[in-house]
Description:
The complex is a heterodimer.
Chain A: E1 4-10, E2 13-19, H1 25-30, E3 51-54, E4 57-60, E5 73-75, H2 88-95, H3 105-118, H4 124-130, H5 142-159
Parallel strand pairs in A: 1-5
Antiparallel strand pairs in A: 1-2, 3-4, 3-5
Helix pairs in contact in A: 2-5
Chain B: E1 5-8, H1 12-22, E2 26-29, H2 35-41, E3 48-51, H3 56-59, E4 61-63, E5 69-72, H4 77-82, H5 86-89, H6 91-98, H7 103-106, H8 111-116, H9 124-131, E6 134-139, E7 142-147, E8 152-154, E9 157-158, E10 165-171, E11 178-185, E12 196-205, E13 208-217, E14 224-225, H10 227-233, H11 240-253, H12 264-288
Parallel strand pairs in B: 1-3, 2-3
Antiparallel strand pairs in B: 4-5, 5-10, 6-7, 6-10, 8-9, 11-12, 12-13, 13-14
Amino acid sequence: MSKLHISTTINGEPTEFLCEPNDTMLDVLRGPLGLTGSKEGCASGDCGACSITLDGRLVCSCLMLAAEAEGHRVQTIEGLSHGETLKPLQQKFLEHAALQCGICTPGMLVAANALLERNTNPSETEVRYWLAGNLCRCTGYDKIVRAVLDTAAEMREAAR
Amino acid sequence: MTGIQYLAARTLDEAVGALVTAGAAGRIMAGGTDLLVQMRSGAVRPGLIIDIKKIAEMTGVEETADGGFRIGAAASGAALAEHPRFGKVWPGVLEAVNLIGSTQVQGRASPGGNLCNGSPAGDSVPAMIAAGAVVTLQGPNGRRQLPVEKVPAGPGRTHLAPGEVLVSFTLPPRPQGSGDAYLRMIPRTEMDIAVVGCGVNLTLKDGVCTAARVGLGAAAPTVLLVEPAAKALIGSRLDAKALDAAAAACSAACRPIDDKRGTIAYRTKIAGVLLKRAAGIAATRAAEV
Lengths: 160, 289
């Protein structure tokens, strides 16, 4: 079986790769593309550790075939910061100690960033429901939710 | 893994043609949130995956000239939620669709896939049945329409003929004073599979229920249209007696399984409880429009 040749855009860069028809986007990100920030937790869409955006929409990269990326825009955790400069959301995660082991963190950041791009004034309930598909075994979630709410407050302040 | 092929069909004719050629080895992929999990677990081993999301007709959500809605089979829950009008007209259908999985899953999962997956616990299906939605199917012999309640055949099975593809849902225009609601019972608030789900759609005129439809999920091998429950509501003012009769009709329709999520006795009782609560929410919404 010959491999599929896929042309896509990843973190703003035109990217081409070869994949098997049943490779997931996560397989290709972590394998040939070397973008290992996205994690494989469950591989069944339950844990959110592999979260990316596809044309700006939050999805699990384990529930998407790599071939589906053809002609679309993919954003991963690697595209969040500008080089060594962290995004305010990432900085807030550090300040609030919103991570411990770190395996859920890339997915949490990608998911929370997708929320803040849509809504800079989410309620705590909205944050908790939005992040319900991102599992964390360390923090008990509270610090993550506080970091997201604090980032949102700062974004609103900056926009005034 | 070898032997699997992927096709991003550009037209419906191409998708149907490929499905006919592939026979039992072909699988249609909409959002893929069930299919990829089933492939991973080894439950299905398709020879050909036919992606239908590049077909414009499959992903659109549009209000029709008569005030109804047409939802492409692969339109995602997120796309439905973002539609400026859909959730205002069909809040019960939207809340049912949006209960499927996480934000990430909502970015991909579609009501079309939810229906074709054939789960008795699919959340969008009871609400679609209550709404009176009709699906358009296209197969090698052309198009046909089927009410949503006629699609499920059993757990994991549908009445789609070989080579048939689900194209879209059509929701009818709503009379003045209509409201719908969907409730599901789960032991927590998010990210779970329905123990029981109940969709109610009704129309009120001067406080009297003039039309009603009830869909019941996770209570039998297929999602059910419960006509006796609707009959008990129609003509009433949704008083306690009518609601009790409708709840009893829902419980009587149950043929559930006993499993870790709920016992037969529990599911049977809860079906009636959810009917009453969902009817109450639908009536409140009907009074608001």
